[in-house]
Design a protein that fits this description.
Domain ABC transporter: 1-231
Strand order of the largest sheet: 7-8-9-3-10-11
Mean pLDDT: 90
Number of domains: 2
CATH architecture of the largest domain: 3-Layer(aba) Sandwich
Number of helices: 9
Keywords: ATP-binding, Nucleotide-binding, Transport
Largest sheet: 6 strands, mixed
CATH topology of the largest domain: Rossmann fold
Organism: Leifsonia shinshuensis
Structural class: alpha+beta
Strand content: 25-35%
Distance between the termini: 26 Å
Bound molecules: adenosine-5'-triphosphate
Radius of gyration: 22 Å
Protein name: Molybdate transport system ATP-binding protein
Shape: globular
GO molecular function: ATP binding; ATP hydrolysis activity
Length: 345
Amino acid sequence: MSLALSATVAERDVAVELRLGTGETLALLGPNGAGKSTVLGVLAGLVRPDAGRATLSDETLFDLPASWLPPHRRGIALLAQDALLFPHLTVRRNVEFAPRSAGASRAEARAKADEWLERTGVGALADRRPDELSGGQAQRVAIARALAAEPELILLDEPLASLDVSVAGELRGTLAEVLAGRTAVVVTHDALDAYLLADRVAVLGGGRVVEEGPARDVLTQPRHPFTAELTGLSLLTGRRTATGLVTDDGLALDGTPTAPLVEGRPVTAVVRPSTVSVRVGVPLPGEAGIAATVTALEPRDDLVRVRTDRLTALVPAAVVAELRVAPGARVTLTVPPAEVRITPA
Ligand SMILES: Nc1ncnc2c1ncn2[C@@H]1O[C@H](COP(=O)(O)OP(=O)(O)OP(=O)(O)O)[C@@H](O)[C@H]1O
């Protein structure tokens, strides 16, 4: 389902144009107040623009002032930051709700609900009520409910924002699986989400699209300062090994693949700087650390971005002061294998 949107919401100073191909996922990035939620609201039919037009495949969602499809007739599912499950219904009934509303029989709706609960990893929780679920489990159920409606377009508003890091990491993997091949728009503040979930990235600033393109290009060669700030991700390229990857110049790093990848295949490791720790000196014999040389120190509030010829680390300023690292210093970097995401190159 290809999507084309052009909309102006004058009161919020938002004026955007976006396009998305069939089966593609678009990540919408941008600082607070940039207009991301407004764009989702316009697509979902919850915010009426002053002017504009949107089409989803050959369906016109709106063409103002003449036409405006109400939310329930758009074939669009919106997944909010909080799961917003019906509290009085079991998990299974929550998920059955969408196919039932679309006219499916009870048996069909149940089969569909069970299938989606399995795919999102919460099949065993079908008979529980929402208040018996953790935040991550509830969000999985919400994803199952959104997808059981078989939407032509799925909108996700910071789906991982309210979860703690380890739960968010697991759910990110599930989302990557279920969004593959689906037309989706994901609002996120997190470059890693954009990198792992999206085919394309649009960066919003002040209600306008300031940068747009294939995710890899936008994230690795950012042109707008906000994108650069946001995407301080470190990337290493190399070949898949049994436990991680090895770079062309022989650095071996353990990591976690985002999908099964055969050994020897060209891969990229994506590392978030906040997960990298730094110590002065070269690795000790048998130590799994990475030998690196500091190339720059960039203070940011009470943190310092320690750039090296290998990975970038984001560490508290007090730690840098204690380590007394300076450009040219030889350091050892360590990063937990779970934080080294290995993706196809
Ligand atoms: N209900 C509303 N009525 C009027 N103005 C609004 C409303 N909601 C948001 N705005 C304004 O519209 C602009 C865009 O806000 P929006 O919520 O779309 O940004 P966002 O990028 O989603 O931000 P955040 O990351 O903080 O959620 C902001 O100037 C905001 O103050």
